[in-house]
Amino acid sequence: MNRENPVEVRQTPQYNEKIVFLAVPESLRGPIEAVSPHSGASFVIDPAIPIPVELAPGAQTLDLEELSWEMIIAGMLRVLTADPEGKDASYYRGFVLAVKPNILTEFTTAALLKARNGDYDLALEIIDLLVGLFPGLPDLFLNRALILEEQADARLEAEAAQDAAYKAYQAVLEFHPPFPDGVFNAGFFFMKRRNFEEARDCFQTYLQLGDEPEKREQAARILEEIQSHNLDDTAFREAYDYIREGDPAQGLPKIGNFLERHPDVWNGWFLLGWGLRMLGRWHDGIEAFRKAIELGGDTSDTRNELAICLMESGDHGGARKELEAALWKEPENVKIISNLGILALKTGNPQEAAGFFRTVLELDPQDPVAQEYFKG
Predict the structure, then answer these.
(1) What does pTM read for this prediction?
(2) ω before 368 within 30° of 0 (cis)?
């Protein structure tokens, strides 16, 4: 690009220290040759509007010899993320789309790849940049929710990540009219969290709006499971809320009430086992989780929870067997791999533990348990 000297470079604390604004000389006025697929017309540079530029890493000032389109696009995206309704927002959006008409596909692919590699923070940062560029696009809100959900599933200390994922799905559900793919994925999120009332509402909404036969069949099948097993039962929901919020003593009578009326529902036995495990009642927890598996709840979560109870009760061989079975179902589940590391430490095998914790950090570099192990 033409690097004719600008008339002014100024910095502003409104966004962050990485952004400077470049005043454009009159001689640069004119169209950018690329065409935006959204506007269908060439974009014309307006010298009256300053151009935000992201400084190179470690730089304190703008070196015009290093100025590139990438630095300008990055600066505009940062500004749009910080102030999506700013007075020059429309101009910056048009500029970015003229220079990078395929940015939505490119950045979305990059974000999902980063998430797949465990770099959730960067993945979310990329999605947030796209939200600034396309503020009303529901797919981006869904992608943010999916990344946060994956992060919550991956992390052993996941409460904050779970809450962030929940809020992200709530944002997806606020779109009007409802976004079919959004409510469908939200339904599965709530199912995994055993929030069956909200899952029921999502799948009912999808059946009203969605038109993909395979997804409609899945939604109908899950609704039948919820209703036939009374998973939207008030006692079940109250028990889940108490246990999830760290008050299992209040939750156990509720889930006991549910199981008296629905003794063949494996989800109830899982919830009972979860509460018992939180109270340190290892042997009772073992019985509850084994009952859940017997009734059809042979999931990686059930096996992992059972393994914790076995480990704490001193049955290290049984715990390893259950963790290996859980890992076979979900080979990249950080919680399971981390528990294998903890089990290796308990059985006096620090080298094996280190291998498990290294794998955890490869999948999630921010995992606190693995980080703490290597600090020691």
Answers:
(1) 0.71
(2) no
